Structures are given as structure tokens and as C-alpha cells.
Amino acid sequence: MKSRIMVVDDEAMVRDSLEEILRLEGYDVRAVDGGEAALNILQRESIDLMLLDLKMPNLEGTDVLKAITRISPDTKVILLTGHGSLESAIDALRLGAYDYLLKPASSTEILNSVARGLVKRAEQQHRRMLLEQLDASLQRLKESEGIETTQVGEIQTITLENGIMVDLARREIWRGNIRILLTPTEGKLMKVMLEHRGQVLSHRELVLMVQGYETTDWEAPEVLRPLVSRLRRKLAVFPNGENWITNVRGTGYVFEIKEATD
Fold first, then answer.
1. 136 or 59, higher pLDDT
2. Is 240 left (phi over 0), alpha (psi -120 to 50) or beta?
3. DSSP-assigned letter for residue 84
4. Do residues 66 and 50 touch, judged by C-beta distance below 8 A?
């Protein structure tokens, strides 16, 4: 299957040139003239990598980048920037951009950066698949050995604000007729978040509490990002649910929602 690449640039000449370079290399390319159009497509389609202009009217590249890390964290982003915005491009790397290219970039520079970004994405997906397989194997081992995964007498049902109910034992969250089911790993993450409401938890702490193993500072965010993204998408069906889990830049995550009071 061809890798899917999106080009986002408000300059038609630049946009058309990049699209042609990438198509000739055999990529499946989408080209749009602004950040809003790009994000609309990302809501519906999977994009492997994006070439994103840093300076655009209405919605700048950094704003688009922040939204991408929330709605499509697997998409690798290469920023296109002029010399005057080089400092902003470097800052954007801290926000999750994979690379940046100075305009005008040669076709060789573009294709090399794209190839490296796609390799990086494939490596991360492979690592995630192995971790999920390991998690599933451990779960099956526990079940085959008759190991209880929840403690007797532990409080499993919680009522949150706005009448939202959470059943940790069944891994269900509901409000009225709206009900979502969580995977075992999503359920563990939800449980940890609820137990530490309002507390900033580092990436490494969360991996240890949810997955049960130690990671390095650079591995932990890669392990957590897809899991947090999936949970956020499910929680978004509830009022303000997409904002319950907040990213704390460079540190980890914090879960903020109040428990219902009598």
C-alpha cells in the first residue's frame, strides 16, 4: 500500500511543486491550501506524513501541529519554514514535529526527510504492536492461571459530574443511552487516571502503572500517545470528555473531572 502524504501550503506554486515531487516518487498525495482543510481531512482519513507550512493565514502551522498531536498522533509532520521563522520551527520540534526544512528545499532534501519520517513511523507502529501483543499475552497468562485482576472489595463504580457513570470492573462508561466499552489497557489507564485526578503523572509513571514495566524517557511518550489518543476519542462522546485528559508539555498527563457529590 502506498504511503499517504498530505501537503499543506497556502502558496499554490509551492504546493503544486511538492505534490508533483512526491507523486513521481510513488506516494499517494493530498494537497490543501490551509490548516483548517488539513484538519478536516485528518478527522476522516488516515495520513502517514504531512508536509506543513509554518506560516499560513488564519491557522498557523504550530496551531495545526498541536491539533494533529491530539487527533492523529501517528501522523509524522515535517515543517516547511523560511529563514525568518527558523526559531519557531525549532520550537515546533518540541511540540512533536518530526523534522523541518528550510524553503526552498531541494527535491533530494524533501524525499530524504519524507523517507526517514515514514521509517520512523513504521518502527513506532511495530514497537507498539509488540507491546500490545505482550500485554495481551500477559493477560491470557493471568486468566489461565486464575489470577484475579481486580481486588475483592475494591470500589469499582464511580459517579462523575454530569451523571457520568464509570464501572471499572466491566470497563464501561455511560450516561443515559450513551455507553462506551474500554479495552483492558484503556480500562487500566482510566482507573489510574481516576485514582490520581488533578495530579500530573509523568509518561514513565503512567507506563509503569498501566503496563507494568519500566521505560526510558523517550520510549514512554511513544508507548502512551496512541493509547491516550484512543481513550480520548472514546471519551469525546460525553460532555467535555475530550478535555478530561490534558497533555502537560514535556512531562505527562493530568486527568481533571470532578466526582459527583451527594
1. 59
2. left
3. G
4. no
Q: How far apart are CA 56 and CA 62, in angstroms?
A: 10
How far is it, in rounded angstroms, from Cα 223 to Cα 211? 9
Place 147 in a pLDDT band, splitting at 50, 70 and 90.
very low
Q: How many helices (H) and strands (E) does the chain have?
A: 8, 12
C-beta contacts of 204-211 below 8 A and 24+ residues apart: 205/252, 206/252, 206/253, 210/185, 211/131, 211/135, 211/185
Four-point Cα dihedral 107, 109, 111, 114, nearest 10: -140
Instruction: At 7, list the grid cell.
Output: 501537503
In this prediction, residue 149 carries a pLDDT of 43
Fold of 4-123: Rossmann fold (3.40.50)
CB atoms within 10 A of CB 199: 13
Instruction: Write the secondary structure of 86-98 as one string of H (helix), E (strand) and C (coil).
Output: HHHHHHHHHCCCC
Whole-number Å distance between alpha carbons of 57 and 167? 45
| Pairwise CA distance, residues 43 & 37, whole Å | 10
- CATH code that applies to domain 157-255: 1.10.10.10
What is the 3-class SS of 154-181, one letter each residue? CCCEEEEHHHEEEECCCCEEEECCEEEE
Exposed / middle / buried, residue 61 (Cβ in 10 Å: 0-12, 13-18, 19+): buried
Asked whether the bond before 239 is cis by omega within 30 degrees of 0, the reply is no
Q: Provide the pLDDT for residue 173.
A: 92
In the block, cell 470528555 appears at 241
Taking residues 17-25, report their average pLDDT. 92
End-to-end CA distance of the chain: 55
CB 245 within 8 Å of CB 235: yes
Sorted by where each begins, the domain ranges of the chain are 4-123, 157-255
CA distances in angstroms from 197 to 117, 236, 253, 257, listed in the order given = 35, 18, 10, 7
